[in-house]
Amino acid sequence: MRPIRFGIVGTGAIAPFHARAIQSVPGAQVVGVTSRTPENAKRFAQDHRIPFVAADVEELARHPEIEAIAITTPSALHREPALAAIRHGKHLMIEKPIDATVEGTDEILEAAKRAGVLVGSIFQARFGDGARALKQAIDAGRFGRLVLCSAYVKWHRTSGYYTGWKGKLAEDGGGALINQAIHAVDLLQWFAGLPSEVFAWTTRVVHTSIESEDTCCAVLRFPNGAMGSIEASTAVWPGWSRKVEICGELGSAAMEDDDISQWAFRDARPEDESIRATRESGAMGSGASAPMAIRFEGHLRQYEDFVAAIRDNRAPAIDGYEARKAVALVRAIYDSAERGVPVALAS
User: Fold this and answer.
1) Which of the following CATH numbers is that of domain 4-121: 3.40.50.720, 2.60.120.560, 3.30.70.1710, 3.40.50.1010?
2) Rounded to whole angstroms, how far apart are CA atoms 333 and 238?
3) Predicted confidence (pLDDT) per residue in 29-53, tens digit
4) If you classify domain 125-295+326-344 with CATH, what class do you get?
């Protein structure tokens, strides 16, 4: 079996999770890396036994053995390396979000479609056992009509966290919502669908020196009449588990980080007890009070699927169009907060 060889663009804090995940997938290898800081690229290559250090993205993308490129640069700096990789016919796995804007996301997706390459984006929370059990229950109609669907990310970051690109609009694309809460946003829309309308507020309560928000609240209206909310912050101590709640006429469930914490239905089923016992946070980790407290298991599961998708010539489980939905919802919330009016999302 031929190995699928990857290059990595960016050597920041999330890059080791990608490198370890790729190298843990049978038949996948990391063979090249590049960074805006050459010394960082050399150090990263040594740490992860990567044979080729490229001077820039173009040189990495020209490497004849590299079939796919992972992009781990800051959120608002994904577009240019993605387009460079696409020009050279490389498949793409992009750390969330695909791009900080819908327009940039669409440009990447349109270019990839023309080039015939795959695009995935990291939303590893979908690969947890609890998340999949919850999604299956929704799809099976166990909740009946959905009534309230909400997500909460009340996390703690110290002032020292906001160095370099973090909190800068030109590089981060936003703050607590797009950086920390986007996994909860993605889970919520995966479970309940995209809202039809949002109204939101953003503010800086504690981290007043950054450009982006440290706190956001949004109310949601879904096409079927359900409502909900999203709360996101990096300003609260000590930081609680990410929580997603799905409540319907026939049952309700809650997931904290990757563990099912509530699971109750009017019509019980034999499998309910084992689902209530689902505990995935030990494998996946939590970023509630420390960003690097997550583990690479979620990335590993997603890369296993992505490598299989390349081999099977199929779309990955979370392709670019699926990952676009979280970007669209985040940007609608930011738009509402900036304009002070409800914002509709395209169906």
Assistant:
1) 3.40.50.720
2) 26
3) 999 999 999 999 999 999 999 999 9
4) alpha beta
